[in-house]
Amino acid sequence: MSPDAARATETDRSSGHAQDGTRRLAPTRVLDVDPLLDDPGTRIIVCCGSGGVGKTTTAAALGLRAAERGRKVVVLTIDPARRLAQSMGIDSLDNVPRRVKGTEGDGELHAMMLDMKRTFDEVVEAHADPERAATILANPFYQSLSAGFAGTQEYMAMEKLGQLRARDEWDLIVVDTPPSRSALDFLDAPKRLGSFLDGRLIRLLTAPAKLGGRAGMKFLNVGMSMMTGTLGKLLGGQLLKDVQTFVAAMDTTFGGFRTRADATYKLLQAPGTAFLVVAAPERDALREAAYFVERLAAEKMPLAGLVLNRVHGSGADQLSAERALAAAENLEDSRIVDQGDGKAGVRNSPETQGRSDSPDPSAATPEPEPSADAASADPVDQVTAGLLRLHAERMQLLAREQRTRDRFTARHPEVAVAEVAALPGDVHDLTGLRDIGNRLADNRRELPEPSA
Amino acid sequence: MSRLQVVSGKGGTGKTTVAAALALALATEGKRTLLVEVEGRQGIAQLFETEALPYEERKIAVAPGGGEVYALAIDPELALLDYLQMFYKLGSAGRALKKLGAIDFATTIAPGLRDVLLTGKACEAVRRKDRAGRFVYDYVIMDAPPTGRITRFLNVNDEVAGLAKIGPIHNQAQAVMRVLKSAETAVHLVTLLEEMPVQETVDGIAELRAARLPVGRVIVNMVRPQVLDATDLELLRTSPRTAFARSLSLAGLGGARRGGSAERLVEPLLAQAEEYAERYALEQEQRSVLGELDLPLHELPLLAEGMDLAGLYELASELRKQGMQGVS
């Protein structure tokens, strides 16, 4: 509240922004989650970010909050932790949205887990006649491709999103993105798979069958057989044959694939879509978040803001780590050196007297019981020293989180941020998700007012 | 001790950091190690505070006692071209293949080929010998894909042998699998003392064992120091708040009277202790879950100043102290 010497020193040391005396650098913008969730214009929210930052939990918490504020919501999760899935009652993997029971209010929450193979199969079935579809589904190359090679999961997540949106059954779709090796993968993989399925190589591989007799194509055919020969040698002839059969059978559906991929991509750029980048206040996660912010801008995808999970705070942040440690040492020293003359208090007295927020006269005499020479052995003193050390650790953590965050804010001051206070344990039920939702929406109160 | 050390773990547990620390730890006493990156994230370069690593083995650190750490970021496309060159002397035809998208096809789409190339390159480094017949690297440490994908990544044989039934890729996959399933390899999993990463570790180990891949150790990363023990926590619950206010005041933090500086610290400090107690209990629970795995456990401390190069050396010496080198 009031100017505090210890606080200013802390700021000085940690971030070099001491001019306003607040320890935290307020973000340029605070992300207000509720208006985003309530806006009927918001139809899709995509949560993205690197692994291990609580992306799925954030998606589920946002879905629940939107539903309890009256909207009809579906949450599409990709690979939820078992207990999180159970908390929403979707431990069955059947690729269809299930109503989540136990929500409050008029809205509805549905949740589903992506089954990428089944989604891929559905796409094939939708685009080929039954006989051709059966050929494709039985093809060994197709089977490995659909069971999860680089990009398939991302592609199918986007495909499923497109399907859900096309049904127009929900007010809001919240989608979690696959746990990729990098957060950017999910934007690239569908394109990569799409361009492969539609690409030059595939056309060449299928060409011999189509162009067989034509005289002008002879020379191309020679080149082709050289190439397929090499690939055949490398991969084994039978695999190549599988690929060719697959490609021939898929030929008619390629157009469909490409069109769908393009449509979903456009959907992500459309006004009803909002991206939320999820991160934790750690160096790697925030670096990835920064890349993602830049990438979304380059792709003209609408970014709503950054959700910063697991942020720590302290109710006693007027007490710096240094002072807490010094005080802890005072208490611990007194155990060894039996003293009753208030030496412990003297060590810190100048600082203590500098604290103008304590008109209480006892503040100036920090040794209320100078006669307590037995205090040295008091177990309460020792445990208090522990409390102070714990606090010092917390303040160091705060400073570290703040430094990492400042680095992000300096790079992207335009990005609105919602902070979610750290929880000691994991989320197991709707109550836990609701709590996260409250913390997401409440983050405004935890931040100091931006100083002018 | 196994010469190929594979390090995996759930996202966010710091597996790259642990892999790098292990490479440093194993390099002490004049050994030479190779730290291999397979996911193209350049995490190693960031950790060692150097520029992005090319597809080339280069020395990135010196360990205490004169050991050396080399690093390599494997690029699957270049690895495939390398490979084609080695077996077919392709030359410009290789570049033509690249232009046509065949290389991209082969490395991103062709089932398992990418993984064969990545693991194959690591296995080649494990077996490579110099002219005197000594191994070029004493240890190869791989910063591998996360726990959720590690078994499929290492079990390339199943994926590829089923599809490419003959040909050099098939043979390569077989050779790689012989190394990966032997005692020459150990797969370590990095976790945190939190429910989700521990659950993933337990599941990951079951998968690795089912695939007959050699499970090494469990490394618990970012372990917070124990500040208060059970007795302390009990005392915190039972003592009157005024006693803490008096102690804080005694420590030099202002007045103990109602509204005094010390007194106003009591509530928030006790709240922090309560959070600590809750976390402490959860951590103990996770420790016992990990204990049931019946695998060697190592714990690495959370570094108060965050992760940097100095911290990496600190973790490496911690791993050495805990006997991470020398035993299987």
From TrEMBL, chain A:
Residues 7-23, 332-341 have a biased composition (Basic and acidic residues). This is ArsA family ATPase. Residues 359-379 have a biased composition (Low complexity). It comes from the Bacteria. One of its GO terms (molecular function) is ATP hydrolysis activity. InterPro entries: ArsA/GET3_ATPase-like, ATPase_ArsA/GET3, P-loop_NTPase. CDD domains: ArsA (cd02035). Residues 42-313 form the ArsA/GET3 Anion-transporting ATPase-like domain. Residues 1-27, 332-379 are annotated as: Disordered. It comes from Streptomyces mexicanus. Transmembrane segments: none annotated.
Automatic annotation (TrEMBL), chain B:
Coiled coil: none annotated. Residues 5-180 form the ArsA/GET3 Anion-transporting ATPase-like domain. It comes from the Bacteria. One of its GO terms (molecular function) is ATP binding. InterPro entries: ArsA/GET3_ATPase-like (IPR025723), ATPase_ArsA/GET3 (IPR016300), P-loop_NTPase (IPR027417). Transmembrane segments: none annotated. This is ArsA family ATPase. It comes from Streptomyces mexicanus.
